[in-house]
C-alpha cells in the first residue's frame, strides 16, 4: 500500500505549487461539468470550458500532444454544444435527447477508425510521445463522445466510459494522480449518465 501511495505522490515532488493548483482546479471543474452533463444541465459547458482550458496547458507540458488537441477541441465543442442545447425548434422546445440511427452509427464508426489512425501517424511521425497508440485511441474516442454529447445523443456515454477506462492507467503512468482520480470518478458518473439519459429518452418518447 505504501509503495502505491509513493508511486502516486512521487511525481508531484517535481511540480510547482502553481502546477498542482492548476491540476486540482481543472479536476474540480471537470467533475462538476460531468455532474451537470449527467443531469443534461446546460452548466456542463461553462464549467467544462474552465477545465479543458487548463488541461490544454497541462497536457502540452507533460507531452500528451493528442490530449492537448482534444482539450482544444473540447473547448470549441463546448461553445458549439452550449449553442445547440439552448437552441429551440419550431415548437419552442430545446434540443431533445435522442439515439443514433443505423446510418449515423456507421459514419461514427468509420470516423473513429480514421481519426485514431491519423492521430497515431501524426504522433509517431511528428512528436516524441512515448504512448502514441493509447494517446491516439483515447483522443479519437473522446473526439466522438464530445460531438455526440453536443448533439444530445445517448451513445455519448458509452464512448465516455470507454475513454475513461483507458485514461485512468494512462494518467497514472504519466504521473498525474489527481487527473487519474478525476477519470475514475468520470467513469462512475458516465455509467450513471448513461442510465439517466436512457430514462430521459424514455420519458420524452411517451
TL;DR of this structure?
The chain has helices at 2-9, 17-38, 44-62, 65-86, 102-126, 132-150, 156-173, 177-204. By secondary structure, it is mainly alpha-helical.
Task: Outline the structure in words.
This protein is mostly helical and 206 residues long. The protein contains eight helices and no strands. It has helices spanning 2-9, 17-38, 44-62, 65-86, 102-126, 132-150, 156-173, 177-204. The longest helix is centred in the C-terminal third of the chain and has 28 residues, at 177-204. It is globular, with a radius of gyration of 17 Å. The termini are far apart.
Q: How far is the first residue's CA from the last residue's CA? A: 51 Å
Number of helices: 8
Morphology: globular
* Class by SSE composition: mainly alpha
H-E string? HHHHHHHH
Amino acid at each position: 500500500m505504501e509503495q502505491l501511495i509513493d508511486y502516486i505522490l512521487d511525481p508531484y515532488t517535481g511540480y510547482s505549487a502553481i502546477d498542482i493548483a492548476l491540476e486540482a482546479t481543472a479536476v474540480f471543474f471537470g467533475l462538476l461539468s460531468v455532474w451537470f452533463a449527467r443531469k443534461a444541465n446546460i452548466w456542463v459547458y461553462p464549467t467544462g470550458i474552465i477545465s479543458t482550458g487548463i488541461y490544454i496547458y497541462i497536457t502540452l507540458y507533460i507531452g500528451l500532444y493528442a490530449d492537448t488537441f482534444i482539450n482544444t477541441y473540447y473547448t470549441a465543442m463546448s461553445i458549439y454544444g452550449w449553442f445547440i442545447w439552448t437552441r429551440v425548434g419550431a415548437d419552442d422546445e430545446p434540443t431533445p435527447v435522442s439515439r443514433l440511427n443505423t446510418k449515423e452509427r456507421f459514419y461514427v464508426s468509420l470516423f473513429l477508425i480514421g481519426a485514431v489512425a491519423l492521430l497515431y501517424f501524426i504522433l509517431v511521425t511528428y512528436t516524441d510521445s512515448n504512448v502514441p497508440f493509447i494517446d491516439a485511441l483515447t483522443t479519437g474516442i473522446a473526439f466522438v463522445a464530445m460531438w455526440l454529447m453536443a448533439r444530445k445523443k445517448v451513445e455519448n456515454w458509452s464512448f465516455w466510459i470507454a475513454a475513461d477506462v483507458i485514461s485512468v492507467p494512462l494518467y497514472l503512468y504519466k504521473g498525474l494522480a489527481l487527473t487519474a482520480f478525476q477519470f475514475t470518478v468520470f467513469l462512475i458518473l458516465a455509467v450513471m449518465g448513461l442510465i439517466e439519459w436512457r430514462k430521459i429518452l424514455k420519458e420524452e418518447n411517451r
